[in-house]
Automatic annotation (TrEMBL):
Region (Disordered): 1-66
Organism phylogeny: Eukaryota, Metazoa, Spiralia, Lophotrochozoa, Mollusca
Protein name, UniProt field: Protein stand still
Record's compositionally biased regions (Basic residues): 50-59
């Protein structure tokens, strides 16, 4: 006996019937090669004879919408992000930021507030060439009380 062959007891089969259409097509079950039979108990040799096929993976191709979206996202992430060239407003903002950094904290807070108020009026369209900023100096009476 060959090492690859499995010894199985001979199944009890009735003789092939001449009217049996399956026997005429596939021949008697006794003629099946033994190395293809599955020796698991409880299963018929005919059912276990089915050859085991290796599962094949489909080629990875972007056929579905999800795959296409992932491909587009991957390409976008690989491209370096280009920033727009700096313009006069970027330069002005950097200059103002540096001036604010150089101020004492209390002066910086007031300057930021005044700048915000001027920008607010500009956004509303209330500024003209003759617009001025009037600062009112109001001192708390507790600080300047005359005793």
């Amino acid at each position: 006996m060959n090492r690859n062959q499995i010894s199985l007891p001979e199944p009890a089969l009735s003789p092939p019937d001449a009217n049996d259409s399956l026997t005429g097509i596939i021949g008697p079950l006794q003629e099946l090669p033994r190395e293809e039979l599955d020796p698991r108990p409880g299963l018929s040799n005919f059912l276990s004879r089915q050859p085991k096929k290796a599962l094949k993976r489909k080629a990875a191709t972007p056929t579905s919408d999800n795959d296409e979206l992932l491909t587009i996202a991957r390409e976008k992430l690989r491209k370096p992000r280009t920033l727009p060239a700096e313009d006069q407003f970027d330069n002005f903002g950097k200059m103002m930021a540096q001036k604010l950094r150089d101020l004492p904290r209390d002066q910086r807070i007031i300057a930021e507030k005044l700048f915000s108020e001027v920008m607010f009026e500009a956004e509303l369209g209330n500024l003209i060439r003759q617009s001025t900023l009037t600062l009112a100096w109001a001192y708390p009476t507790a600080l300047h009380s005359h005793v």
